[in-house]
Amino acid sequence: MLIDQLEKVEHHTIHSGKNIEDVLLPELKQMRDDFNFLKDKTVKIEEEEEVDAQVYVLSKIDYNQNSSSTATRNALDVALKAAIKNLKLD
Q: What span, in angstroms and rounded, lies between the C-alpha atoms of 50 and 24?
């Protein structure tokens, strides 16, 4: 949804201190692609425990906190990298 809204922006080139077209949209699209890549995959979080990779990512976001889009993006980026790092390989 944020990608769609930012693609419609006509009168601004910067959001949260980043160039929308050159930096922010590519970052968001990469996060979207990484999240989609995790579909139907599991993450090993403990020696014996495995969870759905997308559920793992979403569980790492603090939904009780009134966060800026930058803080949310940063939390999502960290969670995605952790999930990819801990993918269960068959």
A: 32
Task: State the first-to-last Cα distance of the chain, in angstroms, to the nearest integer.
Answer: 33
Residue whose tokens read 């990779």: 53
Q: Which residues lie closer than 8 Å to 12 by C-beta, 6 or more apart?
A: 20
The model's pTM: 0.85
pLDDT in tens, the chain (90 residues): 788 888 999 899 998 889 999 999 999 999 999 999 999 999 988 777 899 999 999 998 888 777 788 888 889 999 999 999 999 876
DSSP letter at 87 equals B
73: enclosing H helix or E strand: helix 69-85
- Report the SS3 class of residue 6: helix
Give me 38's structure tokens: 């995790």
